[in-house]
């Protein structure tokens, strides 16, 4: 059983986005008077203060001291750190999405419901899903399939392969075909990998560029990874445009939902791009006057402007929302309005499958992987609370002000 302790006389107001956190208040936390006491929680059974989110004593070895909420009060509790969970009736935390305490071929998956009870993070052993074919490997953490020996979800220098336990593993075998002795890393073939611009990491292994490759770009004489910007101007993607018996080759094209403007670059539709103030890029790459009043979004299918949250132009259960695929830092402000799930029932298939996937959550009509940064600020990741709210929370080991404090961003009903 997890150790359960009351923090004396702590009444929790329920505000989620406050800085410093609620336990920093001396009326709520007797430790708040200590130097750096706002990072401490009171443990009644020995009357001492302990630094929050440290593993071990007074908690079991793999658990950490966390602020919990129970019956309107804040309590100090021992919990498995995010990214780990325990089997029912145990206090040992195991990493999620790895073999952990499971049989060979199974992985340890989070049990969603258990987040409701006592804040305990529980896990269970499950079999990986089947991918379309043998060249693909299932990665439990995001529920997707990736090509074997591609970088997939791995950090640069590792490739995805089958581990000894039969599960996909980010690894780098020094005797494998993807190993580059010069820097000790492993790279997928036909990606840039450790090579200079214009060269690709080829079987051998070697860094090179050959004119017969689809990756070859005649204009620059270089080879570039497919479906990246490659040798192209801004807003383009270098991808296969032509498949012929003599071989395929890649070309620079505008990314989808982009249009080429007079300056040769491609810009996301309905952003300002190179246009004047109060103008936006329209289809065909022309600059047109923004047709909407402030605070309204342009829905191209209707050629009209709507207030965000309006149901009218959208399918049942959906409302007009900001274009979540536009990245303001890169694309600039987007006037594009999209239909996204509102609070009602929503018919979209991908959203349905997102809701039913325990490792994912819907935010703003898009599907995000829990326990990754997703739409969160640096230092935070996306988690689901007991209430079903999806929010950005500081990653383990980071505390405000090193990361932005908890911001509730969406209710996932
Ligand atoms: C996964 O890869 C790492 C790094 O190469 C290796 O140390 C580990 O043993 C592998 N795990 C399994 C289960 O094969
Ligand atoms: C490749 O470039 C050369 C010179 O830059 C040019 O003569 C040739 O026609 C180009 N080939 C193709 C297929 O575009």
Automatic annotation (TrEMBL):
This is Uncharacterized protein. It comes from Dendrolimus kikuchii. The lineage of its organism: Eukaryota, Metazoa, Ecdysozoa, Arthropoda, Hexapoda.
């Amino acid at each position: 059983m997890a150790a359960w302790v009351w923090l004396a006389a702590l009444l929790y107001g329920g505000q989620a986005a406050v800085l410093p956190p609620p336990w920093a208040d001396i009326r709520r936390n007797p430790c708040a008077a200590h130097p750096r006491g706002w990072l401490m929680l009171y443990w009644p059974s020995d009357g001492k203060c302990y630094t929050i989110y440290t593993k071990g004593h007074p908690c079991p070895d793999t658990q950490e001291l966390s602020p919990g909420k129970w019956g309107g009060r804040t309590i100090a509790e021992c919990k498995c750190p995010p990214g780990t969970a325990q089997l029912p009736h145990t206090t040992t935390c195991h990493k999620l999405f790895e073999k952990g305490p499971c049989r060979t071929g199974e992985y340890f998956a989070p049990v969603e419901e258990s987040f409701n009870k006592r804040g305990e993070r529980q896990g269970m052993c499950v079999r990986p899903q089947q991918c379309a074919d043998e060249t693909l490997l299932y990665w439990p953490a995001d529920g997707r399939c990736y090509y074997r020996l591609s970088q997939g979800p791995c950090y640069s220098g590792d490739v995805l392969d089958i581990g000894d336990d039969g599960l996909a593993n980010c690894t780098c075998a020094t005797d494998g075909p993807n190993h580059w002795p010069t820097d000790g890393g492993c790279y997928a073939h036909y990606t840039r990998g450790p090579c200079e611009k214009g060269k690709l990491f080829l079987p051998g292994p070697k860094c090179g560029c050959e004119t017969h490759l689809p990756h070859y770009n005649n204009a620059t004489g270089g080879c570039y990874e497919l479906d990246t910007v490659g040798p192209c101007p801004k807003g383009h993607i270098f991808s296969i445009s032509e498949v012929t018996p003599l071989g395929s080759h890649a070309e620079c094209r505008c990314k989808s939902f982009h249009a080429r403007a007079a300056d040769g670059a491609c810009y996301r539709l309905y952003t300002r791009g190179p246009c004047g103030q109060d103008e936006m890029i329209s289809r065909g790459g022309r600059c047109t006057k923004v047709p909407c009043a402030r605070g309204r979004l342009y829905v191209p299918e209707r050629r009209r402007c709507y207030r965000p949250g309006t149901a009218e132009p959208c399918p049942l259960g959906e409302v007009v929302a900001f274009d979540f695929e536009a990245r303001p830092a890169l694309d600039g402000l987007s006037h594009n309005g999209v239909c996204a799930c509102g609070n009602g029932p929503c018919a979209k298939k991908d959203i349905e499958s997102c809701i039913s996937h325990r490792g994912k959550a819907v935010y703003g009509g898009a599907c995000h992987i829990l326990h990754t940064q997703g739409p969160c600020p640096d230092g935070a990741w996306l988690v689901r609370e007991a209430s079903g709210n999806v929010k950005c929370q500081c990653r383990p080991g980071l505390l405000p002000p090193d990361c932005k404090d908890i911001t509730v961003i969406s209710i996932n009903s």
